[in-house]
Structures are given as structure tokens and as C-alpha cells.
Amino acid sequence: MILFILFAVNFCVCGTSFPLTEVSQGILKGQFLKTYNNRTFSSFTAIPYAEPPVGDLRFELARPAKKWNGTLDATNPHPVCPQMHFIVKGSKPEGDEDCLYLNVYTPLVFIEFSLCNILVM
């Protein structure tokens, strides 16, 4: 069971050029990408949804991902799960057991949220 909810709202803070969103483990920093039709969307990659199934956790039920401090950079690719290419003769297993990550793509949504523009009198 995935224990976090990606809010359907991305927001820009003080003129940043990347989307931020919050899940139960913390804040995610994503990136804006464009489709071939030049439509902008938000991308959040390599979001951990469970602890890596290595060591004592191998062959056990998945445990929820732990909270992180600060903002998680969700702009990088994650490791590929272990696999072999059965079509290619002599191929060796490749990938990493630490591969329990999600990629989330969402339409662009803006909410004006900027503490930089607040007038204090």
C-alpha cells in the first residue's frame, strides 16, 4: 500500500522555475517538461515509496518509505529493478534491488504563492 498522497497542486515559490509539492514523507522538488506539442507538465521522478528490499528486508512485505529532511530532489532517474535480457544470449543480470520508486507526471497547475510579493505596512 502506498502510504503517501501526491497533492494535485504544484506551486512556485518566489519566482522559482520548478514545481514543489508535498507528500507525507516531505517536500518534493520536480521539474517542468514539455510534450512534443509544447504543452508544459510537471515531472517528479525517483520518489521512494518503500524501504529498499535488501538485507533483512529481502522477501519481506514492503515497509513504508521514511520521512526525509528538507526537500527531496525528484528530478533524477532511479535505478532499474534487477532483470535479464532473455533475447540476448549471454546477457548478465543488471539493475539494483533498491528500485522501489515512483515517477509522477501531472498537468501544470499554478497557485500564486509567493511570500516575496506581500506588502507589509
UniProtKB/TrEMBL annotation:
SUPFAM superfamilies: alpha/beta-Hydrolases
Organism: Ignelater luminosus
Keyword Cell membrane attributed: no
InterPro entries, alphabetized: AB_hydrolase_fold, CarbesteraseB, Carboxylesterase_B_CS, Type-B_Carboxylest/Lipase
Protein name: Carboxylesterase type B domain-containing protein
Keywords: Glycoprotein, Signal
PROSITE patterns: CARBOXYLESTERASE_B_2
Signal sequence, renumbered to the chain: 1-17
The organism's place on the tree of life at top rank: Eukaryota
All copies of domain Carboxylesterase type B, residue ranges: 20-107
UniProt KW S-adenosyl-L-methionine keyword: no
